[in-house]
């Protein structure tokens, strides 16, 4: 089975924090994946897609731990959310692609060196290898003590809360949507507890009936709310990123 994927990530974003070497993604030959006896066709399709995905190849070449890193790079190249010196929380951080981007862009590794370094707190209930420059918390974001643990680690109000969290997919669109929205609601509750006035919130959500009321809730608290589908987000995925900026002070 051969699947052709157009080369998309042509832009060089720089070296990933903590690992890898910068480099332009190179055009790779399309890999053919033969269906082996015993391998289900869905896993054959997945393997073929991975092998031929230019974002997977670019992530390997540039030292990012996930192709998802390019989604945050693309969102941030457009909106300039990550600036040196900011305090950023990355919810659902494993394996660490977004954390690498955040560390790089807020210059978190320079903290304590007398420069305007920021701070990145990476939270996941899955264990992940440390990203140099980030503070790691192995925690469920819905646990009662997680907001306080994050606030302690940050040492001040957060400027930006990112959530690339995803539920385990059941393959049933409505169920997956509702589970994704539940994570989005939990992320927003947490963000409201730790964000400084003027702060921002970015969350991945699966489209469906509960997305519009969620956006309405965001509009009540933030001065600007956008929905984005970065080029690195697969066209056949219903995922969308909501980006809310300018948290209003409580009245
Ligand atoms: N942004 C990451 C990157 O660039 O490498 C990829 C994130 S991955 C798509 C989603 C993550 O969300 C998983 O690692 C999962 O363990 C995490 N997650 C899901 N529910 C969570 C929860 N309640 N608390 C903490 N992490 C959660």
User: Shape, please?
Assistant: globular
What is the share of helical residues?
25-40%
Enumerate the spans where pLDDT stays under 50 for 5 or more consecutive residues.
1-10, 18-28
The topology string of helices and strands comes to: HHHEHEEHEHEHEE
- Work out the strand percent: 15-25%
Termini separation: 59 Å
Largest sheet: 7 strands, mixed
**Mean of pLDDT:** 86
In DSSP terms (H or I, runs of 4 or more residues), the helix count works out at: 7
Q: What structural category arises from helix and sheet content? A: alpha/beta
Q: What ligand species are in this complex?
A: S-adenosylmethionine
Number of strands: 7
How are the strands ordered across the major sheet?
3-2-1-4-5-7-6
What's the SSE blueprint?
Elements: H1 41-52, H2 54-62, H3 69-79, E1 87-91, H4 97-106, E2 119-124, E3 134-138, H5 146-154, E4 158-163, H6 173-194, E5 195-206, H7 211-221, E6 222-228, E7 239-247
Parallel strand pairs: 1-2, 1-4, 2-3, 4-5
Antiparallel strand pairs: 5-7, 6-7
Helix pairs in contact: 3-4
Bound molecules: S-adenosylmethionine.
The site of S-adenosylmethionine has 22 residues, from helix 4 and strand 2.
How would you describe this protein?
- By secondary structure, the protein is an alpha/beta fold.
- It has 7 helices and 7 strands.
- The chain has helices at residues 41-52, 54-62, 69-79, 97-106, 146-154, 173-194, 211-221; strands at residues 87-91, 119-124, 134-138, 158-163, 195-206, 222-228, 239-247.
- A 7-stranded mixed beta sheet has the order 3-2-1-4-5-7-6, sandwiched between helices.
- Helix 4 (97-106) links the parallel strand 1 (87-91) and strand 2 (119-124).
- Helix 3 (69-79) runs parallel beside helix 4 (97-106).
- It is globular.
- Residues 1-10 and 18-28 have low confidence and may be disordered.
- The structure holds S-adenosylmethionine.
């Amino acid at each position: 089975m051969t699947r052709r994927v157009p080369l998309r990530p042509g832009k060089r974003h720089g070296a990933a924090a903590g690992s890898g070497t910068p480099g332009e993604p190179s055009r790779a030959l399309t890999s053919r994946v033969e269906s082996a006896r015993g391998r289900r066709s869905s896993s054959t399709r997945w393997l073929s897609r991975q092998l031929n995905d230019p974002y997977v190849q670019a992530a390997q070449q540039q030292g990012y731990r996930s192709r998802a890193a390019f989604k945050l790079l693309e969102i941030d190249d457009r909106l300039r959310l990550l600036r040196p010196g900011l305090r950023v929380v990355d919810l659902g951080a494993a394996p660490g692609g977004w954390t690498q981007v955040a560390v790089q862009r807020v210059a978190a590794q320079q903290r304590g060196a007398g420069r305007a370094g920021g701070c990145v707190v990476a939270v996941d209930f899955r264990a992940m290898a440390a990203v140099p420059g980030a503070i790691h918390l192995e925690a469920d974001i819905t646990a009662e003590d997680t907001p306080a643990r994050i606030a302690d680690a940050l040492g001040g109000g957060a400027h930006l809360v990112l959530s690339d969290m995803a539920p385990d997919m059941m393959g049933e669109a409505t169920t997956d949507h509702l589970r994704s929205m539940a994570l989005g609601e939990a992320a927003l509750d947490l963000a409201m507890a730790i964000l400084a006035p003027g702060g921002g919130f970015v969350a991945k959500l699966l489209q469906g009936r509960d997305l519009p009321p969620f956006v309405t809730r965001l509009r009540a608290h933030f001065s600007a709310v956008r929905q984005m589908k970065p080029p690195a987000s697969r066209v056949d995925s219903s995922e969308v990123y909501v980006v809310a900026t300018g948290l209003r002070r409580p009245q």
